[in-house]
Please model this.
Amino acid sequence: MSAGERAKAKAEQIVGKTVRKAAHAVHKETLAAKGAALETRGKLRGAKEQARGSFKR
Model:
């Protein structure tokens, strides 16, 4: 897993979590769902890169 891809995945997770929590605080459920989706996409990107790295060994 390259450092750039790992950073992108972690950034998506952090931004998604921040958006989700802020949206819940102001009762914006649609925005909260978008934040959760972004957070999940970051987690999946990290898992994909980790799996790709395990096959290279």
Q: What stands out?
A: The mean pLDDT is 89. The radius of gyration is 13 Å. Residues 29-56 form the longest helix (28 residues).
